[in-house]
Design goal:
Shape: globular
Structural class: alpha+beta
Mean pLDDT: 81
Number of helices: 12
Oligomer: single chain
Largest sheet: 17 strands, mixed
Strand content: 25-35%
Number of strands: 33
């Protein structure tokens, strides 16, 4: 927050320090990202950006270049969590840094994420940012969400993920969403450097929130999973509230009465649920992972209305122009047929409370943590409030694609076999060496009314008519604005219905916004003339002369101060130790 005190003609700024400071050494340059919102009328583009999670960013002391954390917290910068939040800055990243440090690069309407970045850092996570520099919130109850994904380069042991978490729209601390702060999930991760805007000394605290894993996959196995919690939004935890370490890591599903979140979740993995030929590399699989896949997920309510409770999460795929319905859970038919509410076909190929209860019975789980935390309905409540989309790539373990029988089980137990990958697939050092350039591609993200993300055509608009040069009239328009996305090409112009296209002021606030008009301005609002201030100067000629002299002196002094500041900044940047700009390896769960 900034407080401005004006003395005569001199503005003096005081900065009130709070938590998790934004750095100033590097200007933040988000990755461009396009999303489409669809209805029966068509699909409209929503240009956004993606920001890098702060766990991978350079953090240094305020006014210096010393790392806040380098294997341990620096005692001078971070003697305690509160002081650390005030004296430690999280730094911005250039477009080049996103590629070098994050291993990410922009592709058509999406992003490609590489496992090991050129800097040597492995794994990464990004979030979508709206034009207001806050996280984009997706409200998907009674909606569907679609995206294209390419996992052909992801072997056993690696995971490309797209998932929703109920993070705060604004992020955390003064750095906020712009710098990728405020992460939380249903694992209530403790190995986060900052929790609730404060340094996480001793890794004793965790960050819990509702989570829906839309897609966790490689070329050999995939799963989508619901993780309800007894929370609303971001909640910091300690001790038992963070949940049992074993409950979730082995996906046992047993009830954890103290923990806030259902770590194990209720998921649908076709291989685990009985169909080992549904998903994999090659034409003999229903979904061929050697080719790009369109993934569509529907969030269905009990009355097919936005107000209804979420009761079913349905999945289908599209490949080579063909719709592929999700596989049936062939290991569950007897259990599902005994339920009068749902028949086998409906209950066996999507996530419902009935499916999750039947899954627990089949896997010999005596109590259901999923049901205890609120089940499918609870996930719907989170989507009603709005959830943040995270995209990531990282190393995994056998819970996705191998044999995971939990702490006390055996490989022959029902549900233990999750995929075809051998037990030696999860050595992280070996994966970094042999699959450093493995990557996942996410693109063509669409969301909207049920059944329309693939059917609806992209809405096309005509360019707004611009008045002749010299016109002082603001014209109303129904098509494209005079604000372009980093270009004035017609294809890059924002619609006037979007925030960036409504005015020149809005355009210049938007990341990548470029104002393309000359004398004329196109706006969505009613016609308004452009008015300039023509009021005469008041006071005597002598007063006006004194005011002019003071103004000139102020300008000269201000220019001198700015020039000095620039010289200092240049000196500091050239003296910056380059090897400290980014930490080589983030700390992850």
């Amino acid at each position: 927050m900034t407080v401005q005190v004006q003395l005569a003609t001199w503005p003096i700024l005081f900065s009130i320090v709070s938590a998790q400071q934004p750095g100033t050494e590097k200007k933040e340059a988000h990755l461009p990202f396009n999303v489409e919102s669809c209805s029966k009328e068509g699909c409209e583009s929503e240009p956004m950006t993606a920001t890098f999670d702060m766990q991978w960013r350079w953090m240094h002391g305020v006014g210096g270049y010393k790392n806040c954390y380098a294997g341990d917290w620096d005692k001078k910068i971070c003697p305690d969590p509160d002081t650390c939040a005030q004296k430690c800055e999280v730094e911005g990243m250039s477009s080049k840094d996103y590629g070098k440090t994050g291993g990410q690069k922009t592709i058509s309407d999406g992003v490609q994420m590489q496992f090991v970045a050129p800097s040597g850092s492995s794994g990464s996570r990004i979030y979508l940012i709206g034009p207001n520099e806050k996280y984009k919130l997706f409200r998907l109850k009674n909606r569907e969400f679609a995206f294209d994904v390419d996992v052909s380069q992801l072997p056993c042991g690696l995971i490309g993920a797209a998932y929703f978490v109920e993070m705060s729209e604004a992020g955390a601390g003064d750095a906020g969403a712009k710098f990728g702060t405020g992460y939380c999930d249903a694992q209530c991760g403790k190995k986060l450097k900052f929790i609730d805007g404060k340094a996480n000394f001793g890794w004793k605290r965790g960050a819990c929130c509702m989570e829906f894993d839309l897609w966790e996959a490689n070329s050999r196995a995939s799963v989508y999973t619901a993780h309800p919690c007894k929370t609303k939004g971001y909640v910091a935890c300690e001790g038992a509230k963070c949940g049992s370490e074993g409950n979730g890591g082995d996906h046992s599903g047993e009830e954890d009465t103290e923990g806030l979140c259902n770590k194990g979740g209720c998921g649908f993995n076709s291989f685990r649920m009985g169909n080992e030929k549904f998903y994999g590399p090659g034409s003999d699989f229903s979904v061929d992972t050697t080719k790009p896949i369109t993934v569509v997920t529907q969030f269905l309510t009990e009355d097919n209305k936005d107000e209804g409770d979420l009761v079913e999460i349905r999945r289908y795929y599209v490949q080579d122009g063909k719709v592929i319905v999700n596989s049936n859970a062939t290991i569950l038919p007897d259990l599902l047929d005994s339920d009068a509410k749902l028949d086998n076909k409906k209950g066996g190929d999507s996530i419902t409370d009935t499916y999750c209860s039947a899954q627990n019975k089949a896997f010999n789980v005596s109590t259901s943590d999923f049901q205890a935390k609120g089940g499918v309905k609870r996930i719907g409540e989170a989507f009603e409030r709005g959830m943040v989309l995270a995209l990531s790539i990282n190393s995994g373990n056998a819970w996705l694609d191998g044999v995971d029988a939990g702490k006390n089980g055996s490989a022959s137990d029902p549900g233990a076999k999750r995929g075809p990958c051998p037990a030696n697939s999860y050595n992280v050092a070996k994966l970094k060496k042999t699959h450093a350039k493995a990557s996942v591609k996410f693109s063509n993200i669409k969301y909207g009314q049920i059944g329309w993300t693939l059917k609806a055509k992209k809405i096309t608009t005509t360019t707004a008519k611009v008045p002749k040069t010299g016109s002082r009239k603001v014209q109303k328009a129904d098509g494209k604005s005079q604000c372009g996305w980093e270009s004035c090409d017609e294809s890059k112009l924002f619609p006037v219905t979007k925030y960036c296209g409504r005015s020149k002021e809005n355009c210049l606030k938007c990341k990548g916004g470029k104002w393309c008009a000359t004398e004329a301005v196109t706006r969505l609002e009613e016609d308004y003339p452009i008015v300039t201030d023509k009021s005469p100067l008041r006071g005597t000629d002598r007063t006006r002369g004194m005011n002019a002299t003071v103004a000139i002196l102020a300008m000269v002094i201000s220019f001198t101060m700015v020039a000095c500041a620039m010289l200092v900044a240049v000196w500091r940047r050239h003296s910056m130790p380059q090897q400290l700009q980014f930490e080589a390896e983030p700390i992850l769960e």
